[in-house]
Write a structure and sequence with these properties.
Length: 373
């Protein structure tokens, strides 16, 4: 197994300056949870609006400004992730409340054709009832006819299983990968460097009431999914997870996450996982890493923010040069609640998320930053 010192994800000509943008703010506020940028002049961001009813939120960037785009079924739904192969094809995934379920969420996905969004039905795992729970957390697309979405499902309050949905250009088909244990297991992000290779990451709980967890991964070899338990962090919070993954090629992936009091970055070399050194502290406790993008074996960027909201505001975007981290602070006023990263290449990246306008738990406002390189 290669050591982190020879992990070839050096950043060539990576941008170190970030410029604040002005995303559109829906009435009542909102939060952006995912972003995809297939070109230098187009990005699609997704999330949810604030308020008593909530609702799915999408915004597109055309190289000059952000604009809200109308979602097909916005009420009682939210979006966690988005993938785009071009400005005329995107897939957004999340959950919506099932009719007659008393509030239980079902899997939710919409497809963008360059002009409008269209709902695409998500099949449930076999045997789920009307009160079951399904949530999709992340999605990746190799083409408009080949997408993979991941998440979790629940038949009861005491069991979650990992979930994979595949899009073939016409419809979704469901897969339930093996869970490593009897308790909650969920997938949050996925990357597929080849049609026969995918890496999905998330979180595995180790007790029935969900107090303790560890990072979790599933590997697709073209025939079946196999569960793995990557290295973890020792944390007082007891609930570390992997939130994002990027694979510039087969056998070369970077997965990031952590816990409110610890950051975690792991490299997959096709055989095993290696933990990278911890990030430097930038005015707050070790950041939770929520986004990663690697455009090649020589370009990688991560973003993070304080996992402990009581630690105050702040956020960072950091690059890894094969030996050490180079972090840069993002000038965000207030407390950050979420951050996601999307890049068209190593020098053109966008960070989206949300911040609390006042104290944590108050009104949320979308935020966006664009790299200057």
């Amino acid at each position: 197994m290669r050591s982190p010192a020879v992990f070839a994800l050096a950043v060539a000509a990576a941008a170190t300056t970030w410029i604040a943008q002005s995303p559109s703010v829906p009435a009542g506020g909102g939060s952006l949870r995912g972003v995809a940028c297939p070109t230098r002049v187009f990005c699609m961001a997704v999330g949810l609006t604030s308020g008593s009813h909530g609702g799915a939120l999408t915004e597109s960037w055309n190289g000059r400004r952000w604009a809200l785009s109308k979602i097909t079924r916005a009420a009682f739904s939210y979006l966690n992730g988005v993938a785009c192969t071009s400005p005329s094809f995107c897939v957004a995934v999340g959950s919506e409340v099932r009719p007659g379920s008393g509030g239980s969420p079902a899997g939710f996905a919409e497809v963008w054709n360059g002009r409008r969004w269209r709902v695409t039905p998500i099949p449930d795992p076999h045997g789920l009832g009307p009160l079951s729970i399904v949530e999709l957390g992340g999605v990746t697309c190799r083409s408009p006819r080949a997408c993979v979405a991941v998440g979790d499902y629940s038949r009861s309050t005491n069991f979650d299983g990992p979930l994979v949905e595949r899009w073939n250009g016409r419809a979704w088909s469901v897969t339930t990968p093996p869970a490593p244990g009897p308790f909650l297991t969920r997938l949050t992000a996925v990357a597929c460097p080849a049609s026969s290779r995918c890496v999905a990451v998330g979180q595995e709980f180790t007790d029935r009431i969900g107090r303790h967890s560890r990072p979790f991964a599933e590997m697709w070899n073209g025939r079946a999914w196999s569960p793995q338990r990557p290295p973890t962090v020792h944390t007082a919070n007891l609930q570390p997870l992997l939130a994002a993954v990027s694979c510039p090629r087969v056998g070369d992936c970077l997965a990031v996450g952590g816990a409110p009091d610890a950051s975690l970055a792991l490299h997959w070399n096709g055989v095993g996982w290696t933990r990278l050194p911890a990030l430097p502290v930038l005015g707050f406790r070790k950041p939770f890493l929520s986004g990663v993008f690697c455009s090649s074996g020589s370009a990688c960027t991560v973003v993070g923010f304080p996992g402990d909201l009581s630690a105050g505001g702040g956020a960072l975007a950091a690059t890894w040069d094969g030996r050490r981290w180079t972090p840069a602070a993002l000038p965000i006023p207030g407390v950050v609640d979420s951050l996601a990263l999307g890049c068209s290449d190593s020098a053109n990246c966008t960070v989206v998320g949300s911040r609390f306008a006042g104290r944590p738990g108050g009104r949320e406002l979308p935020l966006a930053f664009r790299s200057s390189g």
